[in-house]
Design goal:
The chain is an alpha+beta fold and 404 residues long. Among the domains are: 77 residues, Phosphorylase Kinase, domain 1 (2-Layer Sandwich), CATH 3.30.200.20; 200 residues, Transferase(Phosphotransferase), domain 1 (Orthogonal Bundle), CATH 1.10.510. The protein has 15 helices and nine strands. The strands form three sheets. It has a five-stranded antiparallel beta sheet, with helices on one face. Strands 6-7 form a two-stranded antiparallel ribbon. It has a two-stranded antiparallel ribbon with strand order 8-9. Helix 3 packs antiparallel against helix 6 and helix 13 packs parallel to helix 14. It is globular. The structure holds adenosine-5'-diphosphate and magnesium ion. Adenosine-5'-diphosphate (ADP) binds next to strand 1, strand 3 and strand 5.
């Protein structure tokens, strides 16, 4: 790692580590993700995609990419160092003391701006969780971790694989539906709920119970001092049918969030959104939370972009590296694997991927029977009672839904 001095390790994962480093030429600090490169050419190519994707993103609420290079069998990604740690740590440090609503909304608005940016670029994050959201000491929120261990663990499973953390996995995934931009919205809803309660919205002792809770959307209400608007926002994001969930554009152009983003708009965002978003947020200043916001050209344009993501996903056969869909993914077989491997206390890795089917299944009502039949009463290794994902849970919290 020529040109950088390693200061300390700030994160570790199945892929390798994240180091705090100092660039010798500038004395600037960076977070350096060190990823062990797989031996195969295709594996190496897949590993590089994390860097390629991150490099494409330029937004104040996305961790900034500095450079990437390879040395001694590793891929290094130098990125902006977020000195406030990750959101999971922050929640844990609260020790049960709830965050004030204005702080929650301020963080959440920034997160929505970041996700809006990636959706506009037709990228789905697919692993939005508190551990992948980084903070700075000056109150900025940045979405990070654009790669995933699953790309590295089995490149063959890349095209049709979804990697996620069970607590954040939306119902459509358990029900064999493709992942789309609204699936990221579900995960965003989980984050908002966690910020309000310091707990995962859906908690259970077994996979079966977790899936049922997610698919039925059974949620404990927020602490009563939070506003109706916040409760309403969460309810919208947890709509079971993905198409009924708001896009980030809709979220950002209504109510409190619209008013808030005016405050955190930087020149960069203003350029990106254009005058029309400002107009939209100005308008929403005068609207009541429950009132439907007026449609504006910018919102429609941005909504169109978001739905294009979805349409393109439906139309393509896992050919776009940024938009692989989980098409006909065999949840049942994936879960059987989880079941098997959980018993030996190992994390789950994908095996091989079959070509996806072009047919998109219709939305089906009812419980995800295949997943449930496969799971029976398999216990989660640990069920965390708080949003903390440490200890046992981390051993199984990365699920790969790949076809067998
Ligand atoms: P993984 O693929 O293992 O989830 P991440 O990119 O999420 O890897 O990094 C793992 C951990 O390292 C994060 O949860 C966070 O605590 C820390 N980390 C990663 N990138 C940064 C960064 N840019 N600034 C500060 N901490 C970071
Ligand atoms: Mg991560």
């Amino acid at each position: 790692m020529d040109g950088y001095t390693v200061l300390r390790v700030i994160g570790e994962g199945s892929f390798g580590r994240v180091l705090l480093v100092q660039q010798e030429s500038s004395n600037r600090m960076f977070a350096m993700k060190e990823i062990r490169l797989p031996k195969s050419f295709s594996g190496t190519q897949n590993s590089r995609k994390e860097a390629v994707l991150l490099a494409k993103m330029k937004h104040p609420n996305i961790v900034a990419f500095e450079e990437s290079f390879e040395a001694e069998g590793h891929l290094y990604i130098a990125m902006e160092y977020c000195d406030g740690g990750d959101l999971m740590q922050k929640i844990k440090h609260q020790k049960g003391k709830l965050f004030p609503e204005d702080k929650i909304l301020h963080w959440f608005a920034q997160l929505c701006l970041g996700v809006n940016h990636i959706h506009k670029k037709h990228v789905l994050h697919r692993d939005i969780k508190s551990k992948n959201i980084f903070l700075t000491q000056n109150g900025k929120v940045k979405l990070g971790d654009f790669g995933s261990a699953r790309l590295l663990s089995n490149p063959m499973a890349f095209a049709c694989t979804y990697v996620g953390t069970p607590y954040y996995v939306p119902p459509e995934i358990w029900e064999n539906m493709p992942y789309n931009n609204k699936s990221d919205i579900w995960s965003l809803g989980c984050i908002l709920y966690e910020l309000c309660t310091l707990k995962h919205p859906f908690q259970a002792n077994s996979w079966k119970s977790l899936i049922l809770k997610i698919c039925h959307g059974s949620l404990s209400p927020l602490p009563s001092h939070y506003s109706y608007e916040l409760q309403h926002l969460i309810k919208q994001m947890f709509k079971r049918n993905p198409s009924h969930r708001p896009s980030t554009t809709t979220l950002l152009s209504r109510g409190t969030l619209a008013r808030l983003i005016q405050k955190c708009l930087t020149p960069e965002i203003i350029t990106e959104y254009g005058e029309q978003v400002l107009e939209e947020t100005r308008k929403s200043k005068h609207s009541t939370p429950r009132k439907k916001a007026d449609s504006s050209r910018i919102r429609i344009a941005l909504e169109k972009e978001a739905s294009t993501v979805q349409r393109e996903e439906q139309g393509r056969k896992c050919s776009h590296p940024d938009l692989e869909r989980i098409n006909e993914n065999s949840v049942a077989s994936a879960l059987r694997r989880i079941n098997r491997e959980e018993k030996v206390g190992e994390s789950v890795h994908p095996r091989r991927a079959s070509p996806p089917s072009a047919v998109r299944r219709q939305w089906e009502k009812g419980a995800p029977t295949a997943a449930l039949a496969a799971l029976e009463d398999t216990a989660l290794l640990t069920s965390s009672s708080s949003a903390e994902e440490g200890r046992g849970v981390t051993q199984v919290n990365e699920i790969d839904f790949s076809r067998e």
